[in-house]
Every structure is written in structure tokens, then in C-alpha cells.
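Researcher: Please translate sequence to C-alpha cells.
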Amino acid sequence: MADLDSIVDDLRAEGDALDAIVADLTEQQWAWPTPAEGWTIAHQIGHLSWTDNVAERTTSGAAGDTDAAAEFDVALKKAWTDPGGFVDIGAEEESRADDLLAIWRTRRTAMVDALSKVPAGTKIPWFGPPMSAASMATARLMETWAHGQDVADALGIAAEPTDRIKGVAHIGVRTRDFAYAVNQQTPPTEPFRVELTSPSGQLWTWGPDDASQRVTGSAADFCLLVTQRAHRDDLDISAIGTDAAHWLTIAQAFAGPPGSGRPPQ
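Model: Translation complete:
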């Protein structure tokens, strides 16, 4: 993966791209439903606002801000009181803010700034295992992009992917075994080969050249698959080998229980 500065730049740009989509929405459009059941556009941005804020607090805490660290501990304990519902609750609460867009702008800017200043080697606490600043920035990039897809779909916009999605694809590949685990399945011992064509036409690869289990296709479609924003049958992704084919039915780049995915179009 790229260095921290490059990933942070991509995260900032992805947030700005989504901001440009929602900046001029009417009050009625903010209330439009998105493909995520029960979530409006306001819920999508509210969720990002809440999570960006928590990410900034834990990042600043890891860098030495004791007040920020204490705030993250409170958020973590609150989440564990309702692990199945705290995400929806946070999105609902944030979606009601009169100045939601301004709050999200302030929070995501603070988060990106905090990530750019994390000392090398620092591990940042999170709802799962602690992670590096580069991993946190990549995870935030993935979420921003994925929820941006929901917003674009709600508005009938064909969002043009950029090579910033390499971070999303990287998480999708790296979380292969996690997808098996959350589905209570044993992951294959053999590494897979993944070959994806980027939006700019580059070939991105992961895994050994001679692997018998292989996944190939569009990087943008692979990212839609692993964030469960589109159904496998609607995507330009191919698999060679039964294990690789099965992985594509359960792949998920996000934390938490198995997602319900999207129906075929």
C-alpha cells in the first residue's frame, strides 16, 4: 500500500468528492431513502459524521491527547452496551442535526488532520483490534466511498470511480479470512491471486502468480462487491476455483456481522 501521506490525501479527496454531491441538496432530498434499508441520505452523512468524529478522538488520544482518549473510551463502552444497534442509533441521532453538513465538514477535517500527525509506529484503538494510522485512514476511505455509493444511488448519479479505490480493494483482499470467520466458516489455507483493472487502466495484483484460486475483473466492481453495494451477478468479476468462487459470495471489507448485501438488478 501507499504511504500514510498518500492515503490521507486520498481520504481527504474522497470526502471532498462526496461533499460536492450533497452540498446543494434541498431539505427534501436529504430525506430521500438510500439502498440501505431505513437510511436516508441524512443518515448516510450522519453515520460518516459520527464515525469520523470517533476516529478523530481515538487518533488524537493515541497521539497523546488524554481528553480525546477518554472520550473514545466512553464511545467504546456505549457501543458495547448495544453492539447490534449502536451504528443505527448514531446515524439516526446525527441525521437530525440542523447543521449536519457543517458538522461533518468540521469533523472529517479534524480527523484527516489528526491522522496526518500520528507518530510512526503508533497503534490506534478502535472497536476491533488497534490499527496503524495508515490502516485507520484506509478504513475511513473505504467507508466514505461505500456510503458515497449509497448517496449517489439515491440521487440517481453514476459516481465515476477513481484510483483512490485501491485502498478499498486492498481492504477487500486483506479481509478474506475475516469474511469466512464472521460466517462461521474455515478459510482456505491456500492464498488467492487477485488481479483487478483500475479505473485508470492499471493492473493491481495481490497474491502469488501461480495460485490456482484466482479472482479477476474490474477494481470498481470488486470494491462494490466487498462493500456489498451491488450483487455478485451484476458485477464484472470472475473466479477460477471453487474456493475463490465461494469467497465472492461472502466477501466483506467492513467490520461487524455478515451483511445482507443487495439484491440483483
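Researcher: Any highlights?
Model: The first helix runs from residue 4 to 22.
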